[in-house]
Write a structure and sequence with these properties.
With 143 residues, the protein is of the alpha+beta class. It is 42% helix and 32% strand. Strands 1, 2, 3, 4 and 5 form a five-stranded antiparallel β-sheet that branches.
């Protein structure tokens, strides 16, 4: 056995362990990104519900409340629109985003979600409910 035959198993073992650790780190990073996306979708849903609840009761501060609720849930309100008013039906659409943290936290990515909430006409009145218009995803942006 020559010089190159000694310790070859150690080199292969270290190489295989490096690949295993690399795959594990990528897996943890992807899991963290998916969790952030679900979190921002939840923040958007809650912000839309809060805003719709205010507008249905006749208050004009629905988007202000949506911004507060998004902030309490770690998000930033990127946009807010309302249609209708008390007695005629209401729809509120909000866009919420937040910086992605975790293994890939150094990348300039933001998780973003859009959600709608409002009233649904029912026999004899209006029912306030939520419709999660699942437009979630990722966009490039700064923290």
């Amino acid at each position: 056995m020559g010089e190159w035959g000694k310790g070859g198993g150690v080199v292969w073992g270290v190489g295989v362990m490096g690949v295993v650790w690399g795959v594990a780190v990528v897996g943890v990073g992807v899991g963290g990104v998916r969790a952030e996306r679900k979190g921002v979708e939840m923040a958007a849903d809650l912000a839309a519900l809060a805003a719709a609840g205010r507008v249905v009761r006749g208050y004009e501060d629905g988007c202000l409340v949506a911004g507060r609720v998004a902030g309490w849930n770690g998000g930033v309100l990127d946009g807010c629109r309302t249609w209708g008013g008390p007695g005629e039906g209401v729809v509120v659409e909000v866009a919420v985003s937040r910086r992605v943290r975790g293994v890939f936290g150094a990348l300039p990515l933001r998780a973003r979600a859009v959600s709608r909430a409002g009233t649904i006409p029912v026999d004899g009145g209006m029912w306030t409910g939520a419709v999660a218009a699942g437009d979630g995803g990722f966009c490039r942006g700064s923290a």
